[in-house]
Sequence to fold (551 residues):
Amino acid sequence: MDYEKLLSDHARKIKPSGIRKFFDLASQMEDVISLGVGEPDFTTPWAIREAAIYSIEKGKTFYTANQGLLELREEICHYYDRRFGVQYDPKDHCIITVGGSEGIDLAFRALLNPGDEMIILDPGYVAYTPGVELAGAVPVVIHLTEENEFKLTPEQLKEAITPKTKAILINFPSNPTGGFMTKEDYEKIVPIIKESGIIVISDEIYAELSYEEEFCSAAAFDEIKDQVIIVSGFSKAFAMTGWRLGYLLANPVLTKAMVKIHQYVIMSAPTPAQYGALEGLKSCEHEVEKMRDSYKVRRNFLVKAFNDMGLETFKPKGAFYVFPCIRSTGLTSNEFCEKLLEDQKVACVPGTAFGEAGEGFIRVSYAYSIEELKQATQKIAVFVKKYQ
Amino acid sequence: MEDKLLLALLQKNARMKITDLAAALDDSKDNIIERLTELEKEKVICGYHTIVNWDRTNTEIVTALIEINAIPERDFGYDRIASHIYKFDEVDTLYLLSGSFEFMAIVKGRTMQEVAHFVASKLACIDGVNGTSTFFMLKQYKNNGVVLIEDEDGKNDRLVVTP
Fold:
């Protein structure tokens, strides 16, 4: 029987992630030094783990409300106000999701009709474009450039908006580029968003990992706040990737629609994870700060190491990735990463795994100790020398 | 350069090279050396020691925590008594505390007898000290933020490449 024939068009057409291919290559080799990981190297703070264990001991093993524990939603809303100055009502502005990933999917499904256009930034996180396609809509891609430090410019935004545009997805600080939008950068695009009436899905998962300048949320502008859906979660800031816990913040109409989808496909996010996250918000901000400080010095170290070896690398203001330009080697992103893996057993991710505009770049994660970064960059330098 | 970041790096690894510190703090080597010298002078940096787990060596070493009751002195408070205590080589660490006793000393020796003898013949006899209680350490789990026993907690099971 040809099971391929039974597959939906969506499932058949959707491309496997470029990361997956690279993962397969790297996992076949032994003793690989990897700088290819998109998750913190810190274990979840003990206070969070302990709170989750305690919740299990107390028998808190039932479903929570669809939207998630009210107490957790209240803490999230306090937290967003305290840290980023944006106010939401926990009762009807907030949903606890299974990671930021579910939040993105909910937003897409709640907004997009077949034929709608959704603006996506390239290079960008691997799940955005397939998510739009799964929702039956058309991704319209804006190519971000290094000369603009991978920010979204008003000219680019204006040009991409058509009468069919329903929304734009932005992610600052960005995976994979580390690009960052300041308040001043946002001020240039906010009037365009206001005027066009499009929705902004703002993936703010790396908000806490902002180094020089204060993080600015897309929802911090009153005139467009109701047009913004914030997607965030606990994975990066609280080192909770495996817990799969995220949240959405949006106006009540959008929230209500997204809760409808969430209640049928998920029911509610895992209860112990919700209790863990609650403790994280209450008592772990100093741990978040410690991790942020640690990422910052690693970033400095890595940016210098790449520039010293002759690969031009701009200093990202957030997230935990640098995005060195490898054009001077004459190799494509894919060639560079494959040869580097063969030659030095160091794994980085080709920029093209994050979209066409990633050609000429590689993504290097600094969620590693300085000792590991030092060892890996010494090997990369040996490799790069051969091509210069 | 932020002192907080410099100190955090050194606290984690006192052997970190000046070149690496400079790269991590995005500053020049000269500036790092200059700032380190200042911090040493100001006694912010008080040494670059190694955390040794003596339990894993053949060296005999006994550690005791000693609560010390003391009477403060006019003009000096507890400081003069403290100096009479901490000047002994056997005293590794000394704190003045709030609570039911005044000082907590961490004392090291080769044997329990040696430590007991030190407490009885030296510490307890200092003017102003009017009582001690000795607690011998049996096992060290964590010291200066470092877990000293086998613990799977720090093991990192991350996949090689993830988005």
Remarks:
- The mean pLDDT of chain B is 94.
- Chain B has two domains: 3-41, 54-139.
- The helical segments of chain B are 3-12, 18-25, 29-41, 79-86, 112-121.
